[in-house]
Design goal:
It contains three helices and four strands, in the order αβαβαββ. With about 120 residues, it is an alpha/beta fold. The protein folds into two domains: about 45 residues, no CATH class; about 60 residues, no CATH class.
Length: about 120
């Protein structure tokens, strides 16, 4: 089964960026790492994890109330094998996300709109 949307070839991406010595991460809502039927596809994440890529989960609770940082962190760890995650949250709703101190870092989506 192919994922939806069609997945990036992560092995090719890793090889293409190998000589660029910067921290690398995937930012997604898990779509590239699930089968069409919604079942997790951890094999897609394994090359990235092995190469040290981080996972930044999209957490837009105004669009999906269940997409909390704690839930997406659990899913990424339990079903895909990432050792840790970093949530990306809506900057203008930061108060709605509660305590984010369990995460090493937090990204803020579209923070420019509130400044």
């Amino acid at each position: 089964m192919e994922p939806y949307p069609p997945a990036v070839n992560w092995v090719d991406m890793i090889l293409e960026l190998k000589d660029i010595h910067i921290p690398k991460a995937v930012v997604s809502n898990f779509a590239p790492f699930v089968h069409v039927d919604g079942m997790p596809w951890p094999e897609k994440a394994k090359p990235l994890i092995k190469d040290g890529w981080a996972y930044i989960s999209e957490n837009f609770i105004t669009e999906s109330p269940n997409a909390t940082p704690a839930r997406t962190d659990w899913y990424a760890k339990a079903h895909l094998g990432w050792p840790e995650t970093q949530p990306m949250i809506e900057a203008w709703h930061i108060q709605d996300y509660g305590d984010l101190s369990m995460f090493r870092n937090v990204s803020h989506w579209d923070a420019g709109n509130i400044l």
